[in-house]
Design brief:
This protein is mainly β. It is 7% helix and 44% strand. The protein has one helix at 99-107; strands at residues 4-12, 22-27, 32-37, 43-48, 51-58, 61-62, 65-72, 78-80, 84-86, 88-90. Strand 2 (22-27) and strand 3 (32-37) form a beta hairpin.
Length: 124
């Protein structure tokens, strides 16, 4: 089955140089067509039929990105979405960076969240 390609790249603000996010593609009726996760470099590639689509880029703690009215006119088409940079700081997940996010961030400033269990020394 032949399909057109929608591809692009995202970047996230982080220290580990991992640019992973969720990609969701919806048709104009609001139905989920396909979804996937980017590779660690932020690249994604979607294979679709002709139609008009809305693309959402999501990552917890970041503002969502919505790209609307992507028109796929023929199956030989490749649509390159310009690189998108995700903005960190939406701690509450409400789609905005506001005072509530800043209060939470301020309350945790300087804290280290090390979730690895400590290793016990064996008493041999």
């Amino acid at each position: 089955m032949e399909e057109a390609v929608i591809n692009g790249k995202i970047k996230t603000e982080n220290f580990e140089n991992k640019h992973i996010a969720d990609i969701e593609l919806y048709d104009k009726e609001g139905n989920l067509v396909t979804n996937l996760q980017t590779d660690r470099n932020g690249n994604y590639e979607l294979f679709v039929k002709t139609g008009t689509y809305d693309l959402y880029i999501k990552k917890r703690g970041y503002l969502d990105i919505k790209i609307t009215d992507i028109e796929v006119q023929n199956i030989e088409q490749e649509i390159k979405i310009p690189e998108q940079t995700m903005i960190a700081g939406d701690v509450t997940g409400n789609g905005k960076i506001n005072i509530d996010d800043l209060i939470i961030l301020n309350g945790n400033f300087g804290k280290n969240r090390n979730l690895r269990p400590k290793r016990r020394q064996s008493s041999r």
